[in-house]
Amino acid sequence: MSEPHQSPISPGRSWYEDTCGERPRYPALDGSTRADVLIVGGGFTGLSAALHLARAGVDVVLCEAAWLGDGASGRNGGQFGTGQRLWPEEMEDRYGLDRARRLFAMAEDAKAGLRETMLREGIEADFRPGQISLAHKPRYVDEFRRHADAMAERFGYLNLRFMDRAETAERLGSPVYHAGLRDAGTGHLHPMKLVIGLGRAARRAGARLFEDTPIEALTRGPGGLWQARTARGTVSAARVLLATNAHGGRLEPASAAHVMPIRSFIAATEPLAEPARVLPGEEAADDSRFVVRYFRKSADGRLLFGGREAYTSASGDVAGQIGRQVASIWPHLADVRFTHAWGGSVAVTMPRMPYVAQPEPGLDVIAGFSGHGVMMTHWTGRLYAEGVTGSGETLDDLRGLEVPAFPGGTWLRAPLLFLAMTWYALRDRL
Asked: Is residue 231 part of a domain?
């Protein structure tokens, strides 16, 4: 019997990997080949683009350095969310009301589009409805109330409503938060099952998927074709999509300056003895901390809790640190046993909006979803495919966003991010 697979790019074995059923394998590239489009990266963005390109008859090759979903796509919190990473009124302040409404409508299309794809392709990913957001300080209560009003009045979203402290405590199973928002128009799912379903669907549609195939160099070749060199062959293509998110390295240095990887960690408890005492309505949850805590229950009654980020390579005692956060919300879980603890690299940008760019003709980059990627990755992959085929909408509203590079250059970006994030984490605690 073979050993369980451990992602070479993400620490810890996840509960998702142990509950996803059969995980299909795809071959490594062996020899050189040509395609209309090469996709680098086998997460949600790349798989969605491959699926929709192949469905449109485009010859597409996807190369993944590890296994499909070994990065954040197969290991994240599984929460859909509503809108972009920024609240619509924040986008309104930055971009004006008309553009904010378009960006919000895009995110609603993303939500519906992912559900449509799951239904069409027969992907069962344990979707369950409901999301609550929690105010961890009294000063956020009025902001939460205003947000619910703005969503209804200026953006036409009627699924979100404000909860006072008593209702928040009832829906959470704990009195520690000061207020909340309940969103009945979104939900949460099993991300690795979604990865597996998208991979199978893309393969059925005709996409050629290769695992264990890292791209070592990307250059322009004869006739203007892109040449992607691997250890066992070269892929030539007229167009390339870099969908590596936090794992792009130096493959395209100009884009790498705009996207910063940080690590986020999750732990899973054993099945709870009294699951109804925690999130009795089965919603997912997140809170207002800058270093956000996000959590939900699994289908078998475990608590999946993410709440620790790291800005260096060290991971430390993940379960112990998350256990203390869990006990601060639900003291009766102070002695609960954790069966899994894992992490992954999330790509963030300075404004927390996606980085969508074309650094050179025929070379596109989609990355930087800043922890809000379950549905937006799928939709941007689909919009990329429709842009290639000329069959639908485009990514123009995202391409036009101002996403500046992180300050500090190659050597100082990471230390400066560490200092900034440490400061914000300290503010969360004080």
From this structure: yes
Strands 284-287 and 260-269: unpaired
Tell me the per-residue pLDDT of 140-167, one tens digit each, with 9 for 90 and over.
999 999 999 999 999 999 999 999 999 9
Which of 12, 285, 18, 26 lies closest to 171, judged by CA?
285
| Distance separating alpha carbons of residues 348 and 372, to the nearest angstrom | 10
Place of tokens 């971009």: 95
Contact 307, 325 (CB under 8 A): yes
Per-residue confidence at 394, pLDDT binned at 50, 70, 90? Answer: confident
Residue 315's pLDDT is 52
Please report whether residue 84 resides in a domain: no
Model's pTM, two decimal places?
Answer: 0.94
Write the CA distances from 44 to 358, 373, 386, integer angstroms. Answer: 19, 8, 16
Read off φ and ψ for residue 179, nearest 5 degrees.
Answer: -170, 180
Question: CB neighbours of 149 closer than 8 A, spacing ≥ 6?
Answer: none
Q: What is the pLDDT of residue 313?
A: 43
Rounded Cα distance between 353 and 85, Å, is 6
Domain presence at residue 92? no
Range of the domain at 242: 15-75+192-258+351-410
